[in-house]
Amino acid sequence: MEQLLAREAPAYEDVWAPDWALDVRRVVSRDRRGTGDPTLRFAEDGVWRTTTTPDGPATVRLTGSAAALRVQSWGPGADWAGRRVPRWLGAEDGLTGFDAASHPLVARVHRATPWLRLGSTGRVWDALVPGVLEQKVTGIEAHRTWRELLRLTGDPAPGPAPAGMRVVPSPEQVLAVTDWEWHRCGLDGARRRALRAVASVASRLEAAAHGADGCAADCADLRRRLQSVPGIGVWTAAEVAQRAIGCPDSVSVGDYHLKNLVGWSLAGRKTDDAGMLELLEPWRGHRQRVVRLLEVGGSMPPKRGPRMAPSDHRGR
Question: Which long-range contacts (CB under 8 A, 24 or more apart) does 35-43 make?
Answer without folding.
Answer: 36/143, 36/147, 37/143, 37/146, 37/147, 38/146, 38/147, 38/150, 38/151, 38/154, 38/164, 38/165, 38/166, 39/126, 39/150, 39/154, 39/165, 39/166, 39/167, 39/168, 41/161, 41/162, 41/165, 43/162
